[in-house]
Design brief:
By secondary structure, the chain is an alpha/beta fold. The protein is 40% helix and 16% strand.
């Protein structure tokens, strides 16, 4: 598959308490132009949600987020995830993600972490928590000395701030939750989610 960073300008970061919501939510996001969907392993429903999207929404590219252990990698692969995203990385987690054969975005927030990943042959990363870790100014400062590194900034990114991230040469996409407002998910207002997804997809 194409790089996760190049599938869409925005990757929705999804937290689901009920796996029954996974398919209609994914269909709304895909209809709005956001095919790459990161379902975080923060709830017990996550593996079933990933499996349902993988099985029933063929135009979606569903990934697993908040992958923080080799066991989480195995669980994500078994559920049918097409890519993996972690908030940070260790040697054992990185080895497991590499061994999975899936595209993955290990999380970084410091220059040393970026250099360490480059040393391991990894050039695509998640920058997290983006706003708290320095935002666009920090990423811009990395582009000259480390041009080979590309990022998906996630964490505090909004509809208003996303364009400034996407304008950077070392940013492929951003991750966000603004197209998934809590009240829309509660009310199962998939039309609203689709409209917000379309707005996000138009950012580039």
């Amino acid at each position: 598959m194409a790089s996760v960073l190049d599938l869409a300008p925005v990757v929705p970061v999804v937290v689901l308490d009920d796996a029954a919501d996974a398919v209609p939510l994914a269909r709304a996001l895909v209809a709005g132009g956001l095919p790459a969907i990161e379902v975080t392993l923060r709830t017990p429903a996550a593996p079933a949600a990933i499996r349902a999207i993988a099985d029933e929404v063929p135009d979606a590219v569903v990934g697993a987020g908040t992958v923080i252990s080799p066991a989480g990698v195995a669980e994500s692969v078994a559920a049918g995830a097409k890519f993996l995203v972690s908030p940070g990385w260790t040697d054992s987690l990185l080895d497991a993600m590499k061994a999975s054969g899936l595209p993955f975005l290990p999380g970084v927030s410091t220059t040393s972490e970026v250099v360490a990943l480059l040393e391991r042959g990894v050039t695509e990363m998640k920058f997290f928590p983006a706003e708290a870790a320095g935002g666009t100014a920090y990423l811009k400062s990395l582009s000259a000395p480390l041009p080979q590194a590309r990022f998906c900034p996630t964490g505090g990114v909004s509809l208003a701030s996303a364009p400034s991230y996407l304008a950077l040469p070392n940013v492929g996409c951003v991750g966000g939750t603004w197209m998934l407002p809590a009240d829309a998910l509660r009310d199962k207002d998939w039309g609203r989610v689709e409209a917000l997804a379309r707005e996000a997809a138009a950012l580039r």
